[in-house]
Write a structure and sequence with these properties.
single chain, 334 residues, mainly alpha, 84% helix, cell membrane, transmembrane helix, Type II secretion system F family protein
Length: 334
């Protein structure tokens, strides 16, 4: 306890000295500037040989045909510029955790957001480095040269920007995963209806999945991509049950897990897949109706706050305002 008290007292004395705080801030700013210079150097050196890039792509395709065939779909070029993506991969390659469990969890989160490339994990950690370095440098420069704030406030802003920059990629990834799940959830009822029509017309389950994947490419590209992955896995020799289980794990949706479980039970016990899909499609339709009714029931409660803030004062002014004006005129005449 005495040692902790001495350390705390020494720390308090350092904080009480403005000159010490100023030198600490300048040293931290210099360190951030040095890290920014290293980042710029990585940008300059980050342009890789196009021939080597092609070799890496073909090597990945040979090692995993299904993943290589859908790599462009898994990480569309429109999301991130190729040069930026390669830079992030180069920066984050050395920070990827070696723990298999943690690495698998991060890859599952990336797959849930639609990024299935083996290099997506490197890009994620590279984005963390950029947020950890660039944002604090910008905040420090703005606070030091533009804002006339106390030094303690500037240090707090820099520390807060470090935390925000480190956590921002994870929050963005979680938001992308939720958006993709919402898109898949909207597309699932239509896909189930098409699966019912295809299976009742005599197609097998794999052929029906392929047909639905082709028909939903324009309206529901996320679901078409996931179903296409199932077909690629089955063509590569993976058992259809395993491919369906991978579909449920990639999406992370309870509805998809229930659908996969229902299909696997139908295949195990030899029941009609068309009838099973029809029953499940009806259940999904009922759930959508119940969800819409719940949202409609919550509208009145949700509108209470905006009505009270915006409409009630205006109504009071219109209803009571003339009476108050007349009362004021009468009182002033007396």
């Amino acid at each position: 306890m005495d040692a902790l008290a001495k350390i705390q007292a020494a720390f308090d004395r350092l904080l009480a000295d403005p000159q010490t705080l100023q030198w600490a801030f300048i040293a931290g700013l210099g360190l951030l500037a040095f890290l920014l210079v290293l980042l710029i150097a990585q940008v300059v050196r980050g342009t890789r040989n196009p021939v080597q890039q092609r070799i890496d792509t073909f090597a990945g395709n040979l090692g995993n045909p299904a993943a290589g065939a859908t790599r462009e779909a898994a990480a569309p070029p429109g999301r991130v510029a190729p040069q930026t993506r390669r830079l992030l991969e180069r920066l984050g390659r050395g920070l990827v955790p070696q723990d298999v469990g943690k690495r698998s969890r991060m890859e599952a989160r990336l797959a849930m957001a639609g990024y299935r490339s083996p290099r997506a994990l490197f890009a994620l950690y590279g984005a963390k480095i950029v947020g950890f370095v660039v944002l604090p440098v910008v905040v420090a420069l703005v606070a030091y040269f533009s804002l006339s704030l106390p030094l303690n406030t500037e240090l707090s802003m820099v520390i807060g920007s470090v935390l925000i920059g480190a956590l921002l990629p994870d929050n963005w990834l979680a938001r992308q995963g939720r958006k993709r799940q919402a898109a898949l959830r909207r597309a699932l009822p239509d896909a189930l209806d098409m699966l019912v029509v295809c299976t009742e017309a005599g197609l097998g389950l794999n052929a029906a999945i392929q047909r639905v994947s082709q028909e939903t490419q324009i309206q529901h590209p996320e679901l078409a991509e996931e179903l296409g992955m199932v077909m690629l896995q089955t063509r590569a020799g993976v058992d259809s049950r395993v491919a369906l289980q991978d579909l449920a794990e990639r999406t992370g949706m309870d509805e998809m897990r229930a659908l996969v479980s229902t299909l696997m039970q139908a295949m195990r016990f030899g029941t009609s897949i068309a009838e099973t899909l029809r029953v499940y499609a009806e259940e999904m339709r009922d759930k959508r109706l119940q969800s819409a009714e719940e949202k409609a029931a919550r509208v009145s409660t949700t509108l209470i706050l905006p009505l009270g803030i915006f409409l009630l004062p205006a109504f009071i002014i219109v209803a009571v305002g003339p009476t108050l004006i007349k009362a004021y005129e009468v009182l002033t005449r007396m």
